[in-house]
Amino acid sequence: MATRTMPRVFIPPPMRSLTEGEEVVDVGGTNLGQVIAHLERRFPGMKERLCQDDDIRPGLSVAVAGSVATLGMLQRTNPEVEIHFLPAIGGG
Amino acid sequence: MATAENPKYKVIGTRPIRHDGADKVTGRARYGADIQLSGMLYGAMLRSPHAHANIKSIDTSKAEALPGVRAVATSADLPEQGDRVVELGEGAANMRHLTANVLARGKVLYRGHSIAAVAADNIHIAEEAIKLIEVEYELLPPVMDVVGAMAENAPVLNDDIRTESVGSAPPAKDSKPTNVAKHFLFEKGDVAAGFAEADIIVEREFDTAMVHQGYIEPHNATVLWNTDGKLTVWISTQGSFTVRQQTAELLKIPISNVKVIPTEIGGGFGGKISVYLPPVAAVLSKKTGRPVKLVMSRTNVFEATGPTPGSHMKVKLGATKDGKLVAGEAWIAFEAGAYTGSPIGPACMCVFACYDLPHGRVEGFDVCVNKPRTNAYRAPGSTHVAFATETLVNEICEKIDVDPAEFRINNAAKEGVRRVDGPVYARVGMVETVEAIKNSEHYKTALEGKYRGRGIASGFWFNCGLKSAASATVNPDGTVSLLEGSTDIGGSRTGIAMQLAEALGITAEEVIPAVGDTDSVGYCDVTGGSRVTFATGIAAIEAAKDIQRQLVDRAAMIWEVDSSHVSYSDGGVHGPDGKQLSFKEMAAKLHGTGGAVIGRGTSSEATQGGAFGTHCVDVEVDVDLGKVQILRYTAAQDAGTAIHPSYVEGQMQGGAVQGIGWALNEEYWYDEQGEMRNSTYLDYRIPTCYDVPMIDTIIVEVPDPQHPYGVRGVGEVPICPPPAAIANAIYDAVGVRMHDLPMSPPKLLAEILKK
Fold first, then answer.
1. Positions of chain B with pLDDT under 50
2. Interface predicted TM-score (ipTM) over 0.90
3. pLDDT computed for residue B6 by the predictor
4. Chain A closest CA to B425's CA: distance in Å?
5. Which residue among B30, B55, B486, B751 is buried most deeply as judged by most CB within 10 Å?
6. Chain B residue with minimal CA distance to A45?
């Protein structure tokens, strides 16, 4: 199996109109901010959907390598990780 | 206790007496309603008798004229919020909705919606005064059920809500408002192809009723708005820092102007995270210059706080005849209540989370109805969907004649499995919890008797990490004063103290834990999401490591060696040539070696691994009355590492009993006008000790690699399996499949009579 060279981003269904239907894309970046910047360059409009005031939108959580990112746009990424955009989860 | 790969600890796994035990059993613990301040005024609130109405006018003049009344407040006293969505630590809130929920702005959206408040010399005058407030309403038709609220011609509650999703496009300017606030969609694999592989497909519709957390202590808040502009809030809450932020945001003042002092808390379960009273008490205090206390009645709590939503679900599962799940599909609609915010997201993410499902599709909707704005309740959203999925799993097992425990083991989620919502599991213990039930004496003992049946079901919760802080001061007598900011609902101060003690090699009794106010301790997210023993525990361990480092330096100073030649282990420092000093001996030397040693720790780095539970229940059905009696109940749960097993067992038992309440009795009972008709504990039936047997517990320990001692949160999962387990047991007993919660006597009897 070929080794990935970039983080893998899973695109939520409502955003696939921006990716021409692509469900999974590999983009560069060593932190989440860079990954989103690369997404925006490749698929214009993406950042507005994901961010508010240069941070992740309230109510949205980002799972990086299976863990909810607690450092926002500064969350480190590497070529091995998967990135998922999910609803924020609260507990009882 | 089942164990796995866990090392031997000295403190962890023991059962020390809780640090707050003496205060609790002698009645000295101070709860919110116990707060008494010099010059304090008492508040009361006017609440809407209608479920849906425009407010044409409010006249407070007669109330203000009543002797003993010191101030009256309405929404006009709170600042306008505009279109702001703010992250509040455990979820985002639309500030326009949040302020309108605290005091209605132009419209009431549920019975009990607060409209005005009075501060008076005593509670009797305050309650008389609110009767003198005159409100002119324009009544509107209420919409009380989730499917009705989604209809094209349904009355719309909020004119600013358009349907949103994760990453959805901004709504068109000319789009119509709707009650459907959120729509989520998750897909994995090829669902159509998956169902084509299935030999058996079952599809059912399910309904669950709105249910309250049922904490014994009502909401309360006492606020002093001092002349220097600083507010102090005494409150029973699951999160003093979120109260600080919500109060500051609602009043539009800096958070540094708000100090929140958390009192002891008589239960929360997710319902004591949103603020209802502090901004109102603050406004009344500002007007009067005196502290103001507000305490809800039980009816207020039912009608105007945040229960868990009712729901309507359609769920479909497919399996091969040899017992392999191949596909699943779910359509889930939750009642958000008056404003958006139900746990529909986690519900969608949990519905198939117990299983390795190759193909799945899940669609979810958050829908406004004329009921109170819903809030979290143990494993928010997961109990609803576990009822559906776990009932279908047993139906499949019956149709293909496979043991339901064996089926669950063969299809269980495990490390490396991708959930339908995307992420891949790390090490988790679903298999182990089912095996624990399968190997239990309960499961292996045959159940005999007419109209008796047995059911099992599993459940999942993510468990949060979020942010925590702790500090710990070494005392000269060898004890440690631990200060942390997580309000203690389920014994967390002792569980955290035990982790600090383990790290320092001292006893739990030598740690003196306290929960600090927001000016005294570093930021902590809410006590919820089963996060505190995990995350605040990590902060305490980090504080202990900080103490270790400082004690190593002090010992090096005493022994006149370089610190690199000193180490900390086994409750003391060790240096060259066999030199050693115990922690207690080092503590006695602090004053002569530089003064206080204060350790600090934070955590924010990780989420937890998920937690699973599996329950087994035996029931007996009275076929003449439709009443279900729980005969025997066993709960197995992966706790990672049980810090204080008694607390773990208590959470498992408490969650199971709450789940039994959902299953058999509890529901908000509304009439057609939207009036709740059972808003007291006399009529809203929660289980008591007369209704349930002793809940047996099996603690499974599959350590979470993300915590130094392997902790997994335990508070959420145990509420998930009971409704499905009991539904499966009812079917085993009388051959009736129930798809509607609660499975109360009238509903069950009706189904039995249909047979």
1. 1-4
2. yes
3. 57
4. 7
5. B486
6. B169
